[in-house]
Specification:
Layout lengths: L4 H14 L5 H16 L5 H18 L4 H17 L5 H21 L2 H18 L7 H12 L8 H16 L8 H16 L8 H16 L6 H15 L9 H16 L13 H20 L3 H23 L1
Helix pairs in contact: 1-2, 1-3, 2-3, 2-4, 3-4, 4-5, 5-6, 6-7, 7-8, 8-9, 8-10, 9-10, 10-11, 10-12, 11-12, 12-13, 12-14, 13-14
InterPro entries: TPR-like_helical_dom_sf
């Protein structure tokens, strides 16, 4: 069995910090930078745990003498815990606690941007803990809004778009009594629309496509007395996303959007003014999109997505057969 690149790099880092030629601060910085480097490489679970070990070693070396480096070590540990595959809730709780501990220090010593980035990541961890009843979605949304004080659309359009996207998704996942369902959906739509006032196709194509795709999803599943109008708006949003996403440059994102568009077409009458005539044309378009998406997901070994699309194709085939029999 060959050792991974991370294993040898960990040994090299530990050997380097044992050298007497570097100061304690330099050694801590070296450990943090090595650990950060590992997180940018293709990762196995063991590689991530090795990186976690380097962050922890840096944290221990800081003592009380290097508070900012101590906080950065904590942030690194939290970020690693967050991305360990199949993170169990306990690892996410540890990540949450590490971010919160780091924020107390960062707010005294770090740049506003570093604080905001940590708040953004804390929001994500809190959002991940909500299904386990270990965090409140309102706290997640609050963390995102704190980050937005720094990550404005003028200075940081990418972070701004991601934050509003996350806020919208958080609202959509918020449990509410059925009579207030329209409220959380309205807040989600408003979040997408606020972001799209500033994130445009020309200057921020990737973020624009992400927001339009997810806006389409929100519109499509809106509980409303106007489902046809919502599906028409959803298809228009997907078409905006498809101005950016294509099978050559962004195959996975493209496949995701066309399968979403197929879902909307599946439920959209060919003539919105005469829904009683059905939608044989839109169902044929949906079938074509599903087939293309299935092929891309399969080629890129996105097995779960391919299975979902295959099931949608089966359902569509059954509907088309039933329509033909009638």
């Amino acid at each position: 069995m060959t050792s991974s690149i991370t294993d040898s790099a960990v040994k090299a880092a530990i050997a380097a910090i044992s050298s007497e030629s570097a100061t304690a601060e330099e050694k801590i910085q070296m450990l943090i930078e090595m650990a950060q480097g590992f997180l940018k490489q293709p990762k196995t679970s063991q590689d991530l745990r090795n990186g976690l070990g380097l962050f922890y070693r840096a944290y221990e070396m800081c003592g009380e003498d290097y508070p900012l480096l101590k906080a950065r070590s904590k942030v690194g540990m939290a970020g690693t815990l967050q991305i360990i595959p199949d993170s169990n809730p306990q690892l996410l709780v540890q990540a949450k606690e590490s971010y919160e501990e780091a924020l107390e220090i960062l707010q005294q010593f770090a740049t506003l941007e570093e604080v905001a980035e940590t708040q953004m990541n804390l929001g994500l961890v809190l959002q991940s803990l909500v299904p386990y009843n270990l965090a409140r979605i309102t706290d997640s949304i609050q963390a995102y809004h704190e980050a937005l004080r720094v990550f404005t659309w003028q200075e940081y359009p990418q972070e701004y778009a991601i934050l509003y996207n996350n806020i919208a998704i958080a609202y959509l996942s918020m449990p509410m009594p059925s009579e207030r369902e329209y409220l959380r959906q309205g807040l989600a739509l408003q979040s997408f629309e606020v972001a799209l006032k500033h994130i445009n196709l020309i200057e921020h194509p990737r973020e624009y496509a992400m927001l339009q795709n997810n806006l389409g999803n929100a519109l499509q599943y809106l509980i409303s007395s106007h489902p046809i109008d919502n599906n028409l708006r959803a298809v228009a949003a997907y078409d905006e996303a498809l101005k950016v996403r294509n099978p050559q440059d962004t195959p996975w994102e493209y496949a995701n959007t066309i399968s979403n568009k197929a879902n909307a077409l599946f439920n959209l009458p060919d003539n919105p003014d005469k829904p009683e005539l059905g939608n044989p044309q839109n169902r044929l378009k949906a079938k074509s999109y599903y087939q293309e998406a299935w092929q891309i997901f399969t080629e890129h070994e996105q097995i779960e997505q391919a299975e979902i699309v295959a099931k949608a194709l089966q359902d569509l085939a059954a509907e088309i057969q039933a329509f033909a029999l009638n």
